[in-house]
């Protein structure tokens, strides 16, 4: 059996709160975690000042039933199956979103990025692949993608303000895991503040 890859056009949704206006200062691109849909995740951002901020929510390209057919639906950015194809597909999607929503305003509006859980790996891969010039990166309950190394940090992550936020009761990141991540960041030269 021969495995082959085919390239084709693909449609995907994204969601937006606010529009660029005279008072706009920032465009945030906000990435949900594994098993979430933007329609549920977006509720966490109801208090954001939309006069000064535009919020853009891309959605993972793969959707699935969380427990069984006809049950609640979630989305993900990638799995281990056909991993590299999934990554390239979402990079293409995000680059197209950037061209459409952000590039026209890039000279006067700051780009800020937020990744939650699996969305943190996704946004860090996007920054690294597309060499995004951003003002702020927030990783909430997550870390950089494992393949981000010292060279990629120096080339793509050294100019922005990087924040790591870990909840007091995060069930996936305990003190041991956090210590491991912090040692890795020191080794690769990733500058950040921890909250």
In short:
Helix content is 30%, strand content 22%. By secondary structure, it is of the alpha/beta class.
List keywords for this structure.
single chain; about 200 residues; alpha/beta; seven-stranded mixed β-sheet; two-stranded antiparallel ribbon; 5 helices; 9 strands
Mean pLDDT level: 94
Helix segment tally? 5
Q: Could you give the distance between the termini?
A: 51 Å
Strand content: 15-25%
Helix content: 25-40%
So what's the overall shape?
globular
- Summarize the main sheet: 7 strands, mixed
What strand line-up does the widest sheet have? 1-3-2-6-7-8-9
Calculate Rg over CA atoms. Answer: 17 Å
Order of helices and strands: EEHEEEHEHEHEHE
Structural class: alpha/beta
Overall strand count: 9
Low-confidence stretches: none
Give me the secondary-structure topology.
Layout: E1 14-17, E2 26-31, H1 38-41, E3 53-58, E4 62-65, E5 73-76, H2 83-102, E6 110-116, H3 118-130, E7 136-140, H4 150-157, E8 161-165, H5 175-188, E9 193-194
Parallel strand pairs: 2-3, 2-6, 6-7, 7-8, 8-9
Antiparallel strand pairs: 1-3, 4-5
